[in-house]
User: Fold this.
Amino acid sequence: MEDRRCGACGKSFRPCRRVRDQKYCGKEDCRRTRRRRWQRVKRRDDADYRDNQARAQQAWARENSGYWQAYRLGHPEYVQADREGAKRRKRDGHAARGSGFVKMDSIGTFSSVPSGTYLLVPQGEKKFAKMDSITVEITLLSKR
Assistant:
């Protein structure tokens, strides 16, 4: 059997003969990368999987409601780095451009906006032909 290049680390490896289309070597980091990439695609393409993951995360958050508070108490260096990063983002103007700070409740609820395909049209000057419009796919990931 011929050697292959790992899809994660790029190094040559000899695939297991029982795994027909093996694309990753057996190193732990490469296996983790493979699983992460698989999960990203699965979340993107499978609505049932995406919904199940959201429900599982919500259940975990309910059962471990004090996790982040305890983590911050036990890791003051994390808290300090986060504060410095927030100050830097705010100073650099990321909040003004909308890419740094986002209020969770700034848009309101999405209960009236179901998942689907929408035509996004710029607001402002009326035009005869809507040449600036684009079609977008909106997928509701979770409801609060």
Notes: Residues 66 and 72 are 10 Å apart (CA to CA). The mean pLDDT is 84.
